[in-house]
Amino acid sequence: MATVVAFISEKGGVGKTTASYHIAIALNRFHQKKVLVVDADYQRGGISGRFFPDLIEKFASGESPGTTLFHKYQQLYSAGARTPDVDIRQWRDHSTTIDVITADPRLSTVSTDRLPSTNNIRQNNLSLLEHMQMIDYVLTPLKGGYDYVVIDSHPEVSDVLRSVTYAATHCVSPVKLDRQSSIGVATIIGEINNVNADVEMISKSLSKVDYQDTQFSGSIGMMAREWGGGLKQTEQTEYNRLRRTGGVFDNYVTEGDGLRQAAAGRVPVYDITGANADKQSGQFLDLTKEFLSKCP
Fold it and tell me: Which residues pair with 226 in a beta bridge?
């Protein structure tokens, strides 16, 4: 049964998609894990575009081909029959195979406000639970075919993020090592705790829910800056703060031309040559090994 890991952050531009993309590829290429990537980032659809450049133009125009997560929520809003099926695209290179549930910009319209309302408090609460369970409902029949499901989420607190959190067995939060980025980790941990607490309440008062609390496995330092072989003093301060307020991965990834060249070419940094690319490749490989131990 797959381990489901959500990459979540309150703030954009912190390297969340870069981290989820490279860890997903490393899991398959270097650790022979079968991986499904779920792109729940309706603002950018960045990881879908990295795997499938042909989707970028469609995403920008508000389109998304096939059956997506958006259609599953629509079934819930229409009070019709629900089905978990979604379209899965496969990405391959010479040594890697990744399955992807691609992004849909229409997920931005997903909200519990669109649920059918009744005068029955119990039914309304059960509908809220079904909304939170939607992504897990889609993934449940798929989990047996994968070792890991990696979910790349959008950078804000929303009803979609609650559904992502419910579906995950573990959450990690990529951050830049500055005060503005790292302060949002407490908000993310709070949202995870809220989902766990809400499910516990519903399970006790309305309906028994087969659910294991989602764990926060730590922050991941991205675009870090070094001096003299270690983190710069200001970034080391934020790293230490993160260690005290929820935990942080020992390994981090530095900024540099390697990742920029990889993004421009829409390839993983493992396929780029040069000293900086080699360094960042090694950092992601070390990070992936730690990821396997923190999110078993």
Answer: 231
